[in-house]
Specification:
Elements: H1 2-19, H2 32-45, E1 53-54, E2 57-58, H3 65-77, H4 81-106, H5 109-121, H6 123-129, H7 135-152, H8 160-175, H9 178-193, H10 204-226, H11 230-245, H12 257-265, H13 273-285, E3 294-296, E4 302-304, H14 330-349, H15 362-378, H16 387-409, H17 434-448, H18 452-472, H19 474-479, H20 484-491, E5 501-505, H21 511-516, E6 520-523, H22 526-534, E7 539-544, H23 545-552, E8 561-568, E9 573-579
Parallel strand pairs: 5-6, 5-7
Antiparallel strand pairs: 1-2, 3-4, 7-9, 8-9
């Protein structure tokens, strides 16, 4: 037990290093963070746990779980970017510990510990741990579902039904039908592969369905009743069926979109992803006992070891072979492959494609990758000589791509056309590319010395340092080119003591509502904007500078002034705030800060 607690401490420390630095420093990212953070704030303001709203209108895109945990965070720490993101951080921490336990039960302690490190240091997981979105919460409940299934289905046990159904209910409260449909598909495929479909014909299915409904049903029933069916109709029709059948918000892509995205967003561990999948599939094909294997030592020496069950669990990334017994782990490999394949095929077939849809598959990939590396490290897995050098080369490519990409995005290397979105100052963070490059050098030297433990350690340390820096610091340079928070601050429209009207024309980011704490009306034409400003009550209009100058200003019959302006990289143009309040009335008001259009 002391070893387990030590492993927990290591994993929590790694999670903290990767997720806490600068968590609340950047302003909210639009669109998703702005909408989610504000929806939770409005539920708190309206003192409701049932009906989600955004901009004081019914929000039907997502179920309620994220808003509940964000509201709890707001209650504990106040309303801020930090507290809006904290639930995602904690969800990822708990997910990492669950993955450790799952991989430990499937294989051994060393695999579990490395799998936790792989998961949290995968680029997309770490980035979404910093995001006020439901993805991390869904990840937690998805892994909980699979953990409860795996640990309770062994042999002919029927204990998995009720617990798994309850976890699915939580997932459905987080993201909708995918929280039960895809775990159901994974379990179906897994039992089919093992020729055990009969295990699904069980009277406990009725009890499991009842538990699922008791967990997920009350809120769905209440929100449907209180909105007279409006929420359910929009959510199940538009946000699920229509999103699967047709591309929404222009989020389209080819069938291989998610496969390609995984190779990029599982970085830096994607250097070993194909090998992990290949040997995972091979491990799933047949059942055979683990034979005695040599444990490689520095300098190429080897010693014979007994079957893994006779050995104590190894220290973190050290030598030796951890043991769960001498029987083959083919069933675990089958489960992980089913987990990966079901999500990949389902979301590849969906018309709407976004990278975060595949986040629930990352724990399976983390366990497969960790098992691949620990088997190779211990000598149990014999690879062609070119495999690991190719992995090192892929890591070098990652270093070059990241460093070069930051130089180009920061306009330090001028290859983009005039007017392209660039972020001057971002290029200084191209030094981050030196981390995977340094790790690759150390790994190459370890390969030459046949020091496999050092190879894996260098990869793990390099991944944590690389992903932690990418997630925490470049975003700070980009934040200067996001307009909403600065426009609200400079215009003073967040002063709750004033009676103000807000509106937008031809530009809108949801975080404006979060920072202003007010409804922002949607205007459709220059004529509507002129009418808005003609009303005596102080009005503030958010509008692109060119739209104001070319379309609106001439139509306005009352005096106006521009109280704030800021470049917005989302639209790659300057945004202004125009008001009909021609005298300075707010003591809080300060002159706006102008950020020049980096695109020229």
């Amino acid at each position: 037990m002391s070893e387990r607690y030590r492993d927990y401490a290591v994993l929590v420390a790694v999670c903290a290093v990767l997720t806490l630095p600068n968590l609340g420093a950047p302003s909210l990212w639009d669109v998703d963070e702005g909408v989610n953070a504000e929806a939770a704030r409005e539920m708190r303001e309206n003192d409701t746990w049932v009906i989600p709203t955004f901009n004081y209108q019914l929000r039907t895109a997502k179920p309620v779980m994220l808003y509940w945990v964000q509201r709890a965070s707001y209650f504990a720490f106040g309303v801020s970017e930090w507290s809006a993101r904290l639930p995602s951080v904690l969800a990822v921490w708990l997910t990492v510990l669950l993955v450790y336990e799952l991989a430990r039960r499937m294989f051994d302690r060393a695999t579990g510990l490395l799998a936790g490190v792989v998961l949290v240091s995968a680029l997309e997981v770490c980035v979404l741990a910093h995001a006020a979105t439901p993805d991390a919460t869904l990840l937690l409940f998805t892994v909980l579902t699979y953990y409860l299934f795996w640990t309770r289905h062994e042999g002919d046990s029927r204990k998995w039904w009720i617990a798994t159904a309850a976890a699915c209910g939580l997932a459905v409260l987080t993201k909708g039908p995918v929280g039960v449909a895809l775990p159901g598909l994974v379990i179906l495929l897994y039992f089919a592969w093992n020729r055990e479909l009969g295990r699904l014909l069980d009277r406990k299915l009725i009890w499991a369905a009842l538990v699922f409904l008791l967990v997920a049903g009350p809120w769905y029933g209440l929100v449907t009743a209180e909105t007279r069916g409006a929420w359910a109709s929009a959510f199940f029709g538009r946000e699920n069926l229509q999103r699967f059948a047709t591309p929404m918000e222009n989020h389209r892509g080819p069938f291989f979109y998610h496969a390609a995205a995984l190779l990029v967003l599982f970085a830096p561990w994607s250097a070993f992803l194909l090998g992990a999948l290949w040997y995972g599939v091979k491990g799933a094909r047949r059942e055979e006992p683990l034979s005695p294997t040599p444990s490689p030592k520095k300098g190429g020496g080897a010693r014979a070891v007994e079957c893994s069950s006779s050995l104590s669990p190894p220290p973190f990334l050290g030598e030796g072979v951890g043991g769960r017994g001498c029987l083959s782990s083919h069933r675990a490999f089958r489960f992980l492959i089913c987990w990966f394949a079901a999500y990949l095929v389902f979301f590849s077939a969906a018309a709407t494609k976004l990278p975060n849809y595949m986040l629930p598959v990352y724990p399976a990939l983390a366990v497969l990758t960790a098992r691949f590396l620990t088997r190779w490290r211990s000598g149990e897995l014999v690879l062609p000589k070119w495999v690991m050098p190719v992995g090192v080369a892929a890591l070098v490519f990652t270093a070059v791509a990241v460093g070069g990409g930051l130089l180009v995005a920061g306009d330090a290397v001028k290859v983009l056309p005039a007017g392209a979105r660039v972020f001057p100052g971002l290029g200084a963070w191209a030094v981050i590319g030196l981390i995977p490059l340094t790790a690759a050098v150390v790994m190459g030297l370890a390969l030459r010395a046949n020091d496999r433990p050092r190879f894996v350690r260098a990869m793990a340390v390099g991944a944590v340092a690389f992903t932690g820096l990418v997630a925490a610091f470049p975003a700070m340079k980009m934040d200067a080119y996001k307009a909403p928070k600065e426009l609200v601050r400079a215009s003073g429209v967040d002063d709750s003591s004033r009676d103000l009207r807000l509106a937008h024309l031809d530009w809108f980011q949801p975080s404006v509502v979060f920072y202003a704490r007010r409804e922002v009306a949607d205007l459709k034409s220059a004529e509507q904007a002129a009418e808005f400003l003609a009303v005596p009550t102080p009005g503030y209009l958010f509008v692109p500078a060119k739209t104001w100058e070319q379309s609106v200003e001439a139509k306005v019959a009352v005096p106006t002034r521009i109280v704030a302006r800021h470049y917005d990289f989302y639209r790659n143009c300057e945004i202004v705030v125009v008001t009909n309040e021609v005298s300075q009335v707010s003591s809080r008001h300060v002159p706006s800060r102008k950020v020049e259009d980096p695109g020229g």
